[in-house]
Amino acid sequence: MKERNIIFKLVCLLVFIFSQVNLAFSGPDHLNIKVSDFVTLIWDSSIQDCKDEGGQDYVGGFVRVYPDGSKDTQAFRVPTGKRLVITDISINGPMGPVANAGVSKLVIENLSNQSNNYSLTINYTAIGTEHFGAGSNLTTGYVVSDNAKICYPKLHDITISGYIVPSWR
Fold first, then answer.
1. Parallel, antiparallel, or unpaired: how do β-strands 157-166 and 131-145 relate?
2. In the chain, where are the structural domains located?
3. Which of 150, 54, 75, 62 is nearest to 107 (CA)?
4. How far apart, in whole angstroms, are the C-alpha atoms of residue 76 and residue 31?
5. Residues of the chain scoring pLDDT < 70
6. pLDDT averaged over the chain?
């Protein structure tokens, strides 16, 4: 009887541990979003996905980076039937010695109709005399559909954070 009791307690403990591990890797966070649906995108100049401001040359593309530091080798696309809600943007890069502030933009390209492109403006200020940095926390989020790609036609480091949600139309 005593052995049965120990085995029962051990089984209960193992079930509890495995259920907690499963929640940690697939359960919702405080926003009721699965951890696997959170997205961090970084600009990778080796990806030929987005063109420069003149539309001439490829300057890079966004790739998804994972918590272990690995990253995709292909440009990020919002999964079919989903939306990406951008919540945070950080940007930094070189700046001439005279300028101390500026404006840049993140371009959302409509893949089926280029006339429906739109952009998100990013304001930045200088850090010292040769670099700038900016961070933007979007209170309501910025939604990107599965029929669009995100581009940044500049040669700066930029990181985008957000999460994937089901499409509502």
1. unpaired
2. 30-166
3. 150
4. 23
5. 1-31, 53-54, 94-102, 124-134, 153-156, 168-169
6. 75
Tell me how far apart the alpha carbons of residues 99 and 114 are, in angstroms, rounded to a whole number.
Answer: 32
- Tokens representing 86 are 């951008």
Distance in angstroms (rounded) separating the CA atoms of residues 76 and 61: 8
Q: What's the burial of 67, exposed, middle or buried (CB within 10 Å: 0-12/13-18/19+)?
A: exposed
- CA atoms of 15 and 69, how far apart (whole Å): 30
- What are the structure tokens assigned to 165, written together? 């949600």
pLDDT at 22: 46
Nearest 5°: phi and psi at 76?
A: -75, 140
- CA 95/CA 99 separation, integer angstroms: 7
The model's pLDDT over 82-92, given as tens digits with 9 standing for 90+, comes to 999 988 888 77
Q: Do the beta carbons of residue 111 and residue 50 sit within 8 Å? A: no
